[in-house]
Write a structure and sequence with these properties.
By secondary structure, the protein is α/β, with parallel strands linked by helices. It has one domain: 3-Layer(aba) Sandwich (Rossmann fold), CATH 3.40.50. The chain is built from eight helices and seven strands.
Length: about 250
Amino acid sequence: MPVRDLTDPDHLPALDVAFARSRPAIGLGVDQPPPRILLLYGSLRERSYSRLCVEEAARLLQYFGAETRIFDPVDLPMPDRHAGDDHPAVHELRALSMWSEGHVWCSPERHGQVTGIIKTQIDHLPLSYGGMRPTQGRTLAVMQVSAGSQSFNSVNTLRLLGRWMRMFTIPNQSSVAKAFNEFDDAGRMTPSAYYDRIVDVMEELFRFTVLLRSHTAQLVDRYSERKEAGATVDPVADLSAIAVAGR
């Protein structure tokens, strides 16, 4: 199935709840219904550290009050492999992105860059799809895992891709060095500064998603697209004109 099950969603052994805000976006906007977050990871290994990081992120997001979906890319074909991208996994990925209000992308660093697995998922998300935009206006948090010392090559590339996909990428990010040392035998992240940073990033993503959710349509409203669609502006309903009237 394209959506991966999350085991033990309520079990957060590395989180010190004495310092955690269960509703971190209070005062920033309406946090109901729960913000919808799609999480993507970049490795198909049985013990994939990018997937394990994404699972920890999903548990934290649920703790903060979000609804999450983790896409499993195991059946995703290469781009352009099927005419019209007519493949069940592609359809599911795009539907999940349309469902979402925010994304989390986590990639291993391989040869100094993101993996083909994470890039393939992003490549299957067009800027425009059937008159809809699967990524535009959504928030984005980026993370990476490394086998060696800490690096930021993958998160830098993910930021570039997020900007290209017209997403609001949050300032904070996570880079987990020597990821094989950060998880126990059950695949759970142990308490560390790396885990604390993931908490910070998910807390910030939740806040920005709530903050922007009621303004997204206005923030991505573009002159060029209105002109192409022939959607003229009604002067009576144009709030920007009303705001500057009389100056």
